[in-house]
Every structure is written in C-alpha cells, then in structure tokens.
Amino acid sequence: MAKKLKIGLFGFGCVGQGLYYVLNNSTGFKADIVKIAVKDKTKERSVSKELITFDKWEILNNPEIDVIVELIDDAEEAFNIVSEALKRGKHVVTANKKLLANHLEELYKLQQENNVSLLYEASAGGSIPIIRTLEEYFDNEELEKVSGIFNGTTNYILTKTINEKLSYATALKQAQEKGFAETDPTSDVEGFDPKYKAVIIALHAFGLIIKPEQILNLGITTLHDNDIKYASEKGYKIKLTPVIQRLENDKVGILVAPRFVKETDQLFNVDNEFNGVIVEGKFSGEQFLQGKGAGSYPTGAAVLSDISALSHGYKYEYKKHVQKHASDFTNDVFINVYFRYNSIIDLDKIEFDEITEKYTGTDYNYIVGKVNLQTLITNRDYILKNNLFISLVNDKIELNTKTKISIKEKQLINN
Ligand SMILES: NC(=O)c1ccc[n+]([C@@H]2O[C@H](COP(=O)([O-])OP(=O)(O)OC[C@H]3O[C@@H](n4cnc5c(N)ncnc54)[C@H](OP(=O)(O)O)[C@@H]3O)[C@@H](O)[C@H]2O)c1
How far apart are CA 178 and CA 172, in angstroms? Predict the structure, then answer.
C-alpha cells in the first residue's frame, strides 16, 4: 500500500509553486508538505508563514520528514542539500539537471551507500517521462540512439526565427517576455542546459557516467539570417538537438549542436516551447515522445509523479550501468555539418575530411561536409568568438575510419 509521505520542500519559485498546486489539486495522490525553505526574506508568499523557513537544517534535521523535494535555482547549494539529505537516509526528488550532470558519480554512490532513492524525472524533458521510460521499458533492450529537442527556450527562439522570420534578438526578447527564457539565457542558448540533460539520459540509456566538460555543446548564439535563409531554401527547420549514439565499437558518441531537420523528421513539427525525444531501440525501432519541456504545472506534474513513485518504494536500478551496456564514451568521431565561415583562415582552423557542398559569395560563405568532432571541440572558442555557425546536417555520428579499420583488423586476427 502507498505510504503517505511527509515532504520538506526547497524552493518556492516557478516549479515549487507548480508542485504545490498540482499536489493540492491531485485527486489520486496525497502527501503533506511539512515545511518550505526559501531564500529571500522580503518576498510575499502565497502560503502561510508557518510553512516557510529560511534555515535548511530545520528541514534536514526534522525526523518526521522522509522526502526532500529540491527545487532551487542554485546547483551548488542544491548539491549540499541533496547530499546531506541522502546521507540522513531521506529520499530525494529534484528537477535540477545542472546539479545532477555535475555530480552524477557522487549522487549514484550516495544512493547505494545509504540505501535511499533519488528521482529526477523533471530534470530532462520536463513533463515527458523519458527517464522512467528508459529505466523501466527499455531496461534490457540495447539502444542505438537517443536524440531530440531537450530545451524549450531555444526551440521557441528557433521556431520564431524560422516560421515568423523574426531576428534572433527579437525572438530571444519575446521568449524572455513570455517567461520561457531567463534574464540570463546563457545556459539555454549556448547549449549547456540540453547538454546536462544529455548527460543524465546517457546514464539511463547507455549506462555511462560522463562529465559535462567531455561533451561538445554548440548553441544558437551565432545564428545569422543567412543560415536561416539557407535552411529555409532547402525546406529545413533548425533545431538544437543533443545526439547520443552507440557506435560500431560499442562506444557512445555525444554532442549538442543545432541541426537542420527535414519535413520527414519527427522533430520537424515540435515547435515553440515543446520538447521531443526520439529513442531508437535495437529491436523496437523508433519511438517518439513529445510534451512540454518546461513550465510551472508540467514540471510540477513530473515532480509529483516522482513523489508518488517514492510512496511505492520506487528506485532507479541503473541496470544499463550495472550491466555495462556500452563500453565507453568517445569524441573520436565524424559528423556531417554546414559551416558558415568568414575567411580562408577559418577553413585552415576547421579542417574538413570531405566536402559535399561549397559556396563562396559576397554576402557569406559556407561548406557542407564531414569533420572530426575533436576539431570542433578544439576550436569551440574560436567558432564562437568569430561568429561562425555550425549546424549538423543529419543526426548521424560516424566512427573515425581509422578506428573502423582497426576493428576490422581485430576481427580478421580473431578469425
Ligand atoms: N522552470 C522550469 O520550467 C523548469 C523546468 C525543469 C526543471 N527546472 C529546474 O527546477 C529548479 C527550479 O527552477 P525554477 O524555475 O522553479 O526556479 P525559480 O523560479 O527561480 O525559483 C527558485 C526558488 O529557489 C529558492 N532558493 C534559491 N536559493 C535557495 C537556497 N539557498 N535555499 C532555499 N531556497 C532557495 C528561491 O527562493 P526565493 O523565493 O526566496 O527567491 C526560489 O523560491 C531548477 O533547478 C531548474 O533548472 C525548471
């Protein structure tokens, strides 16, 4: 039978208040919020003063509280709170992707050592139940790829620039006015936010614990009208998409970059603040999930679902990690990209392995071809500083041919 949980809530902003609302308006599930910790002593609150505290220890040291729900906007303080809670034998629910991606290893260990559960469905894809789908439905099937749109802010901006021909700056301003983008949108527009989500998904889809610094993230800050023109003329939309893919050598390649998406792609019609996730299984083929990637109630609903799962004693088993589904992570791969550049010096920096299309004009220049991911990692700062733009032209990550040859050689030797 489900246990009625006593909750200590950290944070009463967009998601905290969303959770409070959905919990109080849920017909099926009941739990008590015993205390809410917040930071700003001057803010007016919509709940009684007795519920509010400014002292985290009042919650962490309360033996009556068995679940901590962490919904603050400070990843380092969130780590302190979450790790203290786990050490004290309290279960935790969080929506904080930055906290998770930066501390996956420690948080995984803390759960095992203290025999407690840490759930975080809301941290990736908002209300899309991607983590539990990977954990529970695809727990034994080998996956080939997980990709999609994991960031509502940039999808909103890109939708407005492509569909309504707004400039990047106007679309960003509109996203901020509508509350989709934060005052400092860096994490979203530079692709850090979807990268944190890719790190979390890589653990549940492939069993790998990867540091965010190991993964390339190119955002949309250098998107120019000429890139939009190029994409529109070809009938493409531009989406910021993480790609997490198993390679022939059983390693996994990951990157976050803008991508040209064709009309036949599932992600083509995932517009505005919506998110979409595509999971490709070895036997089941392609699955597509779409939903609201952010927002007070959708995110609150995902948090509520985790709290409800806790009441039934639910824990992630991390089967793919335990069973070592993928052998390792690698950046020694090739990707096919469109590269808008300024001068010949840029082409000396970003060396292409193959070129399939080239244009040199008075207005702008571009190349389409195959490049080693490591080249882009080495020159990330150069690309951003010089306002160059990179977009994937498909969602395929290819193993470096030299590595491919060595696999074939190995097979020949083994035979
Ligand atoms: N917004 C979304 O749609 C969304 C979607 C998915 C995941 N998330 C994640 O959910 C988390 C919360 O996001 P949000 O949008 O709800 O943020 P938010 O609206 O900015 O609210 C943050 C809350 O955290 C409180 N806070 C900050 N530092 C604190 C501290 N040291 N101790 C106690 N309380 C503290 C703030 O207190 P005051 O009220 O006193 O200022 C505020 O109530 C973040 O990790 C975010 O990445 C958000």
Answer: 10
In a domain, 308, yes or no: no
Same domain, 241 and 270: yes
Helix (H) or strand (E) holding 126: none
Which residue puts its alpha carbon closest to atom 33 of ligand 1? 38
Counting from 1 in the atom list of ligand 1, the atom nearest the Cα of 193 is 47
Which tokens is 279 given?
């999971």
Confidence of residue 413 (pLDDT cuts 50, 70, 90): very low
**CATH number where 71 lies:** 3.40.50.720
* Catalytic residue ranges: 197
Q: Which of 91, 119, 147 is at the close of a domain?
A: 119
Tokens encoding 280: 């490709």
Residues 356 and 248 in one domain: yes
Q: How many CB atoms are closer than 10 A to CB 21?
A: 16
What are the tens digits of pLDDT across the range 52-81?
999 999 999 999 999 999 999 999 999 999
Confidence of residue 189 (pLDDT cuts 50, 70, 90): very high
If you measure from the C-alpha of residue 348 to the centroid of ligand 1, how many angstroms do you get, rounded to a whole number? 44
| 124 within some domain | no
| Domain count within the chain | 2
Quote the Cα angle for 158-161-167, to 5°: 125
Give residue-wise pLDDT tens across range 236-291.
999 999 999 999 999 999 999 999 999 999 999 999 999 999 999 999 999 999 99
Q: Point out the least confidently predicted range of 28-42, 117-131, 180-194.
A: 180-194
Asked if residue 256 lies in contact with residue 331, where contact means CB atoms within 8 angstroms, the answer is: no
DSSP codes joined into one string, 29-60: ---EEEEEE-S-TTS--SS-GGGEES-HHHHH
Q: pLDDT, tens digit, for every residue of 284-295?
A: 999 999 999 888
170 burial type by CB count under 10 A (0-12 exposed, 13-18 middle, 19+ buried): middle
| Residue in 9, 17, 38 to alter for ligand 1 test, most ligand atoms within 8 A of Cβ | 38
Q: Is the CB of 373 under 6 A from ligand 1?
A: no
Our answer on whether the CB atom of 64 is closer than 6 Å to any ligand 1 atom is no
Best residue among 73, 100, 156 to mutate for probing ligand 1's pocket (most ligand atoms within 8 Å of CB) is 73
Helices 296-311 and 14-24: angle between axes, nearest 10 degrees: 60
Which domain CATH number covers 192? 3.30.360.10
Domain span including residue 343 = 132-296+326-402
Minimal CA–CA distance to 292: which of 155, 173, 131?
155
Q: What is the rounded CA–CA span in Å between residue 122 and residue 125? A: 7
